[in-house]
Structure prediction request, 493 residues.
Amino acid sequence: MPPILKTNPTKTLLLTFLLLSGSFIISKTTHAAPNRQARHDIFKAQIAKGRDLFVNETFSGNGRTCSTCHRLDNNHTIDPKYIARLPDDDPLFIAETNPELAALEQPKLLRQFGLILANIDGFDKPAVLRSVPHLLALGTTITPEEEFEGRVVKHAVGWSADGSPGNGSLRSFTTGAVMQHMPKTLNREEGIDFRLPTDDELDALEAYMLSLGRTEDLDLDNMYFSSPIVQKGRELFHSKEPGTGQCKGCHLNAGANSSSSLQNGNRNTGVDNMPDSPLKLVWKKTPSDGGFGGDERNDCGWSAQETCYGNNEFNMTSVVEAADTAPFFHNNSVNTIEEAVAFYNSNAFHASPGANPADPNDPESVCERCIHLEPTQVTAIALFLRTINAMENIRSSNDLDWQAYSQKRKPRRALLKLAIAETEDAIEVLEGGVIIPNPQSVQLLHKALSHQQEALYTPISRQARNLLKQAIEYKQQANDLLLKEAPAATNED
Prediction:
């Protein structure tokens, strides 16, 4: 695959969308050398091809495509609220309409929890139920720590870092998805139930997925927030010190990399061992998910008596994009970002290897990484996560608006719909915490959204461009109000 060229991060997301006219969006590279520009042209053509395959290619299967589960207008994922709006003939629900695929999913759990069946441990082992991971900022998250439990994987993907067959690469992840989710029958015979992607198609799909979202992590050590609540949340989050959230250890700069290895690691944090799982209350036969690896264990789940396959470890995920990709964790077990933060106060976490208790049966005695956050501190961390998520939404929305700015009506509308979805996400994320630390930013985002919606239905290009310029300005103002300058140095410093 041609090398990924680093572009201005405020322009990168725009590489991902084809125009309806058949051309593709070009992210401009400043002062590119001729040979670099040639590679860049090849790569953006791959992204365009990959996007088309992602949205439209069924691989001669059951009618599903990659975007059946990874929706472009929903952060390249799905969730119960989104699923509830889909018509019954959507390919997502094929297990309900095709008797030969009745066991492809658990329809009740798909609709209630947004969970899909995945034979992570092989088709000869029971399937587990997992949420659909978003595909944003993959380039910053998938470099694995050198070795997981004696096994080397190329990329940390699929919640457990072994969600991909073969060498564990993102490229192979696509192959596994075709076999798992797109067959005509559960015999899963290549050439009959589906066709596998070609090498060229795999290259293009990988290029598309790597182009989505951020291309760089934040620099939280040099970010300061205008709200003292959000600033306190940043301090509690981006620390490894006792008495804080100690989140920095696994989520350096709110990404998915360990602050020690600077790579994505696997950890057992006890998520699958929470009592009274909503999923198990609905379906008592829910299998325990063993995470990474395929070794059989008989001490899984809250009872420590269930069978699972793996070592109970899951790989780390970026939390910049977390607040608007609820529910949370690999099993969608909690609903809000506040609940996700509060999980680390729980006995399930404190008894896990991730907390490193001296005695798992009495984790409160000596526990190296047990976390004790007050409710006010949980709120502060959650509002910090909501704020940085909204900032990413604003960045993405403005990029899309700028690309729409110079287009004719039909392609402009296609881009604007995606830009509007990002602005709506920013508003929903900031308002979802109930406490609103920056109400003026929310007001500006509502104004921007109104201008975007008007531009969507305006047939006159000049008028649409004026509306977009104003929307972009409002969003930038909203973003700037969330931040403040670095504090002045004192003599003591």
